[in-house]
């Protein structure tokens, strides 16, 4: 995978469906200065991204966050973190599938929700099984459509300002009737943070990057900064163009900008929003299947998940398994509940990753890798702990059930490791079958290598 493809992978995952629906929620929480919590959330996300950049270039392996936690704290911690990451990915795909069947699609065609969800997830699974290159090429096109839609909003909002139909003074309004300036901005920041998650999925493709040391940090920080700049500009024009109370009430806040500006068919923007949702689901589905494959290869999940499709070299069993669970969630859950649970699960993962990078500083490796200043992971950990305090009790109740399942799995794997039955342990070395180009997804076969067990 080239730097350009990785950049678009990360950009497409970050520029997912969140910004198309969350601007109104941020406005309701923080007031007219929507751009401010978006900018703060970008800073918080960049802190944890720094830890990912160091670990992904130091240990470029599928398994990502789970692998880092295993190295730092042992197989039990790795199992828990990996399960939380995997659960977050599966939950996210389920939420996006449910969102795809929602109002944007209904504005174009009337179809039963259950049928749309099934067809949508089956199509994504088939594209994922087809191969990583095909999936990422589709992502490049979809990412450009998503980005084009947001740039369209920025242009329409700027036009409203120029022709005098906007109110730039709203950009300085901080706080709501219920909360003062500081707590309102912090509440909005928690919501805005959701718009930036997605960058963490890219570490599971580190094996498939040609030169991780150079490519990964460039693609990661470049994509985050691009997304952040676009988000802040969208927040500026949306707030200036649409009164705050109307923005807060709308379930399609960016459509309000389109309606006020005129000249662009609402159906066209609905198509763009659907592309954004579909692309986010595709990229997250890739992450979930590769993570399941990596955890199974490390002995943390059933070995059947390591089976590859002959010729294509894609982990088809992992794709089918993760897509099946997402289908059940999409048919039985609501978007809001699934999204809130996702945030909690990812905060567990982010906190563990920030701790892992600090612990692993004591264990240098032979390969050259990116290194972030020590203060960055400490600040990243502090940001995660703060965001934990903003999670509602009802979300904790749901999320702790999944975390509890992960803890049980971690205990089982820890007991297996103590008994010496872990399949990735044999005389200090492990023989594994590498996938072509360093990971799953290509069609020209694989190669065998020997690497030490950490």
From TrEMBL:
The chain crosses the membrane at residues 7-28, 34-56, 68-101, 107-127, 139-161, 181-199, 220-242, 268-293, 314-331, 337-358, 370-389, 395-415. Gene3D superfamilies: Amino acid/polyamine transporter I (1.20.1740.10). Residues 427-436 have a biased composition (Basic and acidic residues). The keyword Coiled coil does not apply. Its main location: membrane. PANTHER family: AMINO ACID TRANSPORTER-RELATED (PTHR42770), MEMBRANE PROTEIN (PTHR42770:SF7). This is Amino acid transporter. It comes from Nocardia wallacei.
């Amino acid at each position: 995978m080239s730097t350009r493809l990785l950049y678009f992978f990360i950009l497409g995952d970050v520029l997912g469906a969140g910004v198309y629906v969350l601007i109104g929620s941020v406005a309701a929480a923080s007031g007219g200065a929507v751009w401010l919590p978006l900018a703060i959330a970008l800073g918080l996300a960049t802190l944890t991204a720094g830890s990912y950049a160091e670990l992904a270039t130091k240990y470029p392996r599928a398994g990502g966050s789970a692998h880092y936690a295993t190295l730092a704290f042992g197989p039990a911690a790795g199992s828990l973190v990996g399960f939380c990451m995997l659960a977050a990915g599966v939950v996210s795909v389920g939420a996006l599938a449910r969102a795809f069947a929602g109002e944007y699609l209904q504005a174009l065609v009337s179809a039963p929700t259950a049928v749309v969800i099934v067809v949508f997830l089956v199509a994504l699974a088939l594209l994922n099984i087809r191969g990583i290159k095909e999936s990422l090429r589709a992502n490049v096109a979809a990412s450009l459509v998503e980005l084009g839609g947001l740039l369209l909003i920025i242009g329409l909002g700027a036009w409203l300002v120029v022709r005098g139909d906007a109110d730039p003074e709203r950009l300085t309004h901080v706080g709501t009737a219920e909360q003062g300036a500081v707590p309102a901005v912090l509440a909005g920041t928690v919501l805005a943070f959701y718009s930036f998650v997605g960058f963490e999925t890219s570490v599971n493709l580190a094996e498939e990057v040609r030169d991780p040391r150079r490519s990964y940090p460039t693609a990661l920080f470049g994509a985050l900064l691009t997304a952040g700049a676009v988000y802040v500009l969208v927040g500026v024009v949306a707030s200036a163009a649409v009164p705050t109370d109307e923005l807060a009430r709308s379930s399609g806040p960016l459509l309000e900008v389109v309606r006020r500006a005129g000249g662009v068919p609402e159906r066209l923007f609905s198509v763009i929003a659907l592309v954004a949702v579909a692309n986010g689901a595709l990229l997250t589905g890739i992450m979930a299947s590769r993570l399941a494959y990596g955890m199974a290869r490390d002995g943390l999940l059933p070995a059947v998940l390591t089976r590859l499709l002959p010729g294509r070299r894609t982990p088809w069993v992992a794709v089918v398994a993760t897509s099946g669970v997402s289908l059940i969630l999409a048919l039985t859950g609501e978007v809001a509940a699934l999204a809130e649970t996702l945030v909690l699960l990812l905060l567990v993962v982010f906190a563990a990753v920030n701790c892992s990078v600090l612990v692993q500083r004591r264990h240098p490796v032979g390969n050259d890798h990116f290194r972030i200043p020590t203060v960055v992971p400490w600040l990243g950990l502090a940001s995660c702990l703060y965001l934990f305090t903003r999670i509602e009790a009802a979300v904790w109740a749901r999320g702790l059930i999944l975390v509890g399942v992960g803890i049980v799995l971690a205990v089982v794997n820890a007991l297996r490791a103590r008994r010496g039955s872990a399949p990735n342990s044999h005389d200090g070395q492990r023989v594994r079958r590498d996938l072509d180009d360093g990971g799953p997804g290509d069609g020209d076969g694989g190669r065998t290598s020997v690497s030490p067990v950490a």
